[in-house]
Structures are given as C-alpha cells and as structure tokens.
C-alpha cells in the first residue's frame, strides 16, 4: 500500500461533508451572522466535553463528486495563491496557506482566525486557489471548508515550517527545512484485532501572531467515534522546531489502547535489515531507531526493522522522561539519494510534562515493500484504559530536528547495527547461528586506552550466546561489540539486551532488539 492509498484508507470512513463538520453550532452561527465570537482554550475544552456526550456523526459521501474523483495530478494542480496567505500583508513572522479538499482529503475542516481573543470562521473562497488541472471542478459551495493548512516562517516564506493535513496528522521541520516523519493527535486501537480508528481534527483555530512574536499558537478540536479532544499547540521555530502540546481527552467509550503522542515513520531497508534491499540505494528510511529515556533514567536504543510480519513491542515504564523516533545516521553516502535526502530527515523527540504514571512505550513495525508506506508507529500507552465520562489531561513537548534535545551525556550511543550469518570463517558450521555487530561511540569511550578491559553484557530471552567480543573501532573513535546467537529449533522471537561496561561501570546506552529466527528449512549453513 503506497502513501496515497494509505492516506485514502485512513481518511475514508471518517466522514466527509459539504458543510464544515463543526458540531460547531458556534461556527455555524459565526458564518450566519458574520460576527466574531470569543474564543479560548477553556471554551474549547468545555465544548469538547459537551460534544463527547453526543453520538458521533459521520457525514461520509457528501463532498462534491468533482472533488472526490480527482486524479492525483489534478489534485496537485490546485495551488493556493501565495498572495492570499493569512497575514501576508502584515509584518507577522508567520504566514498560513490553506489546503483544498479533494481526492484523499474528503473530510472538511473548519478553520478560524483568532485575533485578540475573537475568532472568525474562514469561509471557503475559490479565489484563494489557482487550478491548472484537466477535470472541471464545477461550482463549489461557499460552506465547503478546507482540508487543512500549512505554516511558513519569515526566514523563508516559500518553504513549509509545519503542516496539519489528514485525520489528526501533522509534521514540522527543523533547521534543515526537510519534512520526514509525522506526528498524530491520537492513536486508537493500533495493532490490535479489528480495525484501527483514526480520529481527525474537525476544526482548527489559528491565532494571528502579535508583531515581533516568534511563536505561533494553534488549537484543534479532535473528534472520532471513541472520543473528543481539545488540543493547544505552541510552535517555536529554531534549529529544532519546539512544539508544546496540551491535550484534554473526553472519551465517548472505553479506549483499551489509546496512543498518546503518537509518531509515524518509515523504515524499508538499512544496515540492520536488508529484507527488502533490492533497491540500488543502500538505505531507505525516515528514522533508524526508537530512543527511550525511562523514568528510572535508563537510556535504551531499539533499531527499527522492516519485519516479514507485523511486530509489536511494548516497553513498560513509569513516568517516562522521553522517547522518540530518531534518524541518527546523517551520512549521505549511506543513502545515496539526491532527490529526497534521507540523511536530512528530522528526528522527533517527545518530552512528557508532568507525571504520566504507569504504562508503556509501544512500537509497531509493519511489513512494507517500498518507501511510500509509513510502517512505523510509536506512542505512549497508559496502563489504565481511558473511560467515558472522564477528563484525561496530557502535556508534552515535541522537538523536531537533526538531534534530540537530550542525550546520554557520559554514555556512548549506538551508531550502527548490522546482522548476518554467524560462525567462524573458514570453519565448517555445524549448526545455525546469527551474528550481531553493534557499534558504539561517544561518552567515555573516547577516553579509554586500547588495553581497557571493556566487556559486553548480553542477556537473551532464550537461546545461547557465543563468540562475544568488544574491541576498539578507530574509524568511529568508539567500540564494536559482536556476538553470535544460537536460536535452537524454535521460531519464537528472541528479546536481546546489551551494553558495554568497564568493571561495574556502564559505558553505553542499552541496545535492545527482537530477533525472529527463520524457519528451519531456511537456515542455510553455507
């Protein structure tokens, strides 16, 4: 499934309407009487709570036919006119452009501009767009609504700073001005039996920035069959885009697996997994690992994979300090892609605010055959289900950019993970084993002499470990740890943990991995 088809799948069934989905009696009144209405986050939370007491309504199938049946090329031919961007004629540091409805984006979103605490609905205006496509759009109603919006910053008004488009998806850039992975407002029932539910932002409020302000404020109303929610975003551009997010959820029904601060990325092939390595490019991925800082202060690194079957890993924790999907490998030579530049993809780090309690950081890896499918999802899953008639508050900070804002400091970090057939070269292999080579650099490793007695500490859930070593690797000014894993006859996954130590002192973050042995008929000894 490619990204276009995926987006169509995600959004289909969430509701489409020729009216702005606004339950939005408030918004409808604004359009009818032409008056501004007071707006605040407190009002939005109250409205989301009230809305949760009503049945969810889907308006699927009411978008004009000419928009629903647009080809990809014709949809791309609908261009927003830059001279109509919000605040283009002011001295604001930000500008906003609007996305047109059509093709996969069939759920109208009500957009508002907030000025001095007063909100005005942004009515659909066909003059905001140029259309160079072949299929006639026809006369479109004035209450059509929009699909979403994108933001630009004064450093370069021609390139996106952030975009909110499709279901509850949004993404942003750091200093390299490069899009990559996405975040979501909420994940519901991801990787469990039955269909995943994709909540959507049915309305946004964009505050006109004050002169001289370098932050942008956005609010969103989340709606789905299972829940409503009020969201407040504060965007602060810089070397890293810092995005503060406040969330208030009001479930309509119990959510057994609610994903807080969900991140969505792509991993097809890399040093660690070459199952789909038929492309001429050595590596293809938006992110190469899941980094975690536990509530107890332990740093973990889980390399991503493109598994043969859906894989779900859960890392239990209490009051996590942070997690993120990172693109640590920033070397162009490792990708050789001079079109999309995977080495520039931003990492995203989630920094919780306050106490999130018990739960788990969940990682979902879905098989993919190419780079057009976002197959990686990571999120925080509260231990207790979210129940109706309750308010659940979460706050966190997202960091978008080349590096996470925090690092293990004195601990070395994983630079690369490689795997392959185990055994000793030149000697006959009597049984199947799988080799792991993990490179660490940074921290105290740079201060060690060549005679330092560094050892790998390896634990496995089953199987036997052999041929272990840890030796200096001058090419990265670090160390390479290697070992073979003998899985036995079972095909059950094996969980692995490893770190390097000197005496009793840890030198590195903890590398965690899940290895699934191939069926015995496929275990070649060569």
Secondary structure category: mainly beta
Radius of gyration: 25 Å
- SS summary, helix count: 5
Largest sheet: 16 strands, mixed
Helix content: under 10%
Would you tell me the overall average pLDDT?
Answer: 91
Which term fits the overall shape?
elongated
Uncertain spans? 1-34
Strand percentage: 35-45%
Distance between the termini: 35 Å
Number of DSSP strand runs:
34
How would you characterize this protein structure?
Residues 1-34 have low confidence and may be disordered. This protein has a 16-stranded mixed beta sheet that branches. Strands 3, 7, 8, 9, 10, 11, 16, 21, 24 and 25 form a 10-stranded antiparallel beta sheet that branches. Strands 27-28-31-30 form a 4-stranded antiparallel beta sheet, with no helix packed on it. The longest helix is centred in the N-terminal third of the chain and has 12 residues, at 41-52. It has helices spanning 3-11, 25-33, 41-52, 65-68, 72-76; strands at residues 37-38, 78-80, 94-99, 110-115, 118-121, 129-131, 148-153, 156-165, 169-172, 182-184, 187-188, 200-207, 216-223, 227-236, 241-251, 258-265, 267-269, 284-285, 289-293, 299-303, 311-318, 322-326, 347-353, 358-365, 376-382, 392-401, 413-421, 434-441, 454-460, 464-473, 478-486, 494-502, 505-506, 510-515. The chain contains 5 helices and 34 strands. The protein is elongated, with a radius of gyration of 25 Å. The protein starts with a helix and ends in an 11-residue tail after the last strand. The chain is mainly beta and 526 residues long. A hairpin with a 2-residue loop joins strand 4 and strand 5.
